Amino acid sequence: MVNYRKEWFNWVAKERKRMQRKSKGKTVTHREAMAQASVSWPKAKAKLTRKEARLAKKSGTAAPSSKVVPTKEDVEASTEL
Q1: What is the mean pLDDT of residues 53-59?
Q2: DSSP code of residue 4
Q3: What residue spans define the domains of the chain?
Q4: pTM
Q5: CA 5 – CA 45 distance, rounded (Å)
Q6: pLDDT digit string (tens) for 1-53?
Q7: Whether the Cβ atoms of residue 8 and residue 42 lie closer than 8 Å to each other
Q8: Rounded to an integer, what is the distance from CA 37 to the centroid of its chain?
Q9: Is residue 42 helix, strand or coil?
């Protein structure tokens, strides 16, 4: 299970490092880094989600977000009882 809060702050730290390199000498605050990171976070979060699903599939356990969709036969069998 991925802790997205922890991953978010790791992402902000990475963005802050990138911003710091670009702004030669000027310090970048955590708040500024959070504002910049919020733009690219959805893409990074999707990447983490896909990675988690891939690992769950590889280990044989179902992903926690996967839903079981009943087939037509299942629905008909349940209504017959």
Answers
A1: 91
A2: H
A3: 4-80
A4: 0.68
A5: 11
A6: 889 999 999 999 999 999 999 998 889 999 999 999 999 999 999 999 999 99
A7: no
A8: 14
A9: helix
